[in-house]
Amino acid sequence: MNYSQTEQKLYGGAMSVVLPPQFVDVSCFREIPDNQEVFANSLTDQSIIVDILEYITEPDQQAIQSHFQEVADSNGASNNEITKIISVNEIPKDEISMPECEKVYYILGQQQVAKYNETAKNIINLHLGLFRLPMYTTDILVTFNDPINISPESSSHKPVPTSATRWTDSDFKHIIKSLQILDTGLFGQ
């Protein structure tokens, strides 16, 4: 897949990332918090969220759990048996484009979530990239929501057009590896 055409500036140009095809900037349609950038693949119901968060001073494994739990809480998925972390892998620093980063983790989890306050529950694979930046008292969390089982009662239940390009975990890993800080003033430094 050719990613040269899809570099996206984030946070007013302070960061950049290479996104897969068919992404839509969600801020064109609804208000997004200042600490987030949100992109969706409207044909597949997938989304990518970049969050600038306060650094969690706990050891890395606890910080991973805390961030995963925060995502579960915001998705309304905290109290169900599907919500779990499946695997955690550290990404070698020489594979990422962010030398300021102390450590980067790729987390794969699963959650059962409902959209727009619906009662129908969908199962999503949740791919997380956690960038630990203690020198800026910041964690950057990149989330890829990938629905794998959409309830027939969900507003998201519709056929995916054959023209749609479904994003993959390889696409997400490319996103993680391409994320760059272009202006550290973003962190108030």
Automatic annotation (TrEMBL):
One of its GO terms (molecular function) is small GTPase binding. GO terms for cellular component: nucleus. Belongs to the MOG1 family. Pfam families: Mog1. GO terms for biological process: protein import into nucleus; regulation of membrane potential. This is Ran guanine nucleotide release factor. Keywords: Protein transport, Transport. PANTHER family: RAN GUANINE NUCLEOTIDE RELEASE FACTOR. The keyword Protein transport applies. InterPro entries: Mog1, Mog1/PsbP_a/b/a-sand. The keyword Thylakoid does not apply.
